[in-house]
Design brief:
about 210 residues, 4 strands
Length: about 210
């Protein structure tokens, strides 16, 4: 069983400087928001994207640290158990710490709770297109009444493939059997390097200054 000395595994932002770019672009998806009062100034998209990046990276760091410790102690197969029991509580704790709603969603879920809805599938599709065209999957912003949600790509590296790659080639038999035991309907294998595993969604309250 291979030990992995990394800070992020199973899910990763890839090259953070590219994937989690904070710039606002014309391609960002924006819905109308609640009109602000005449004496209040609505914060620009770039501010929400910067805040969302901070919250997503904060949650990612905590998850990655705990997962790495689990792998180093007991191996990749044990890490599957860890994700099954600890990933959601840790994510929820970070949501409470930052006073936002944090979640990870995908079109190829391992856990049904991570299944993307229709609007999230559109964002995933747009980011996949960016990757296919050799571009960085830019963060996107969606405004709704009283809320704003920022989305950031989660892309795969070679390390991720130990739980999300191809059976036998990337995933050892013991780990594969554990995945099938805990997730009989698993759809989260078969990935290659630099593919879109999913997205972080960070929902924040609309703010003014």
């Amino acid at each position: 069983m291979k030990n992995i000395t990394i800070s992020l595994i199973t899910f990763t932002f890839g090259v953070i400087s590219l994937v989690l770019s904070c710039q606002s672009s014309d391609s960002n998806k924006v819905n109308p928001s609640t009109p602000a009062s005449s004496d209040a100034k609505v914060l620009p998209d770039s501010v929400y994207l910067r805040m969302g990046k901070e919250y997503a990276l904060g949650a990612q760091t905590v998850l990655g640290k705990n997962l790495t410790e689990a792998i180093q102690k007991k191996g990749t197969t044990y890490a599957v158990d860890f994700c099954n029991t600890r990933a959601y509580p840790l994510t929820d704790s970070m949501s409470k710490k930052f006073n936002v709603l944090l979640k990870r969603v995908t079109d190829k879920e391992r856990n049904r709770a991570n299944r993307a809805n229709e609007s999230e599938l559109e964002i995933l599709s747009a980011m996949k297109k960016n990757i296919d065209e050799g571009k960085s999957p830019e963060p996107q912003l969606v405004r709704n009444i009283g809320k704003v949600t920022a989305y950031y790509a989660i892309t795969t590296t070679a390390l991720c493939l130990q739980c999300h790659g191809n059976k036998d080639k990337d995933i050892n038999t013991e780990t594969f059997n554990k995945i099938r035991t805990l997730y009989p309907s698993d759809n989260a294998i078969g990935y290659g390097i630099n593919q879109l595993r999913g997205i972080w969604a960070v929902q924040m309250d609309v703010r003014t200054n």
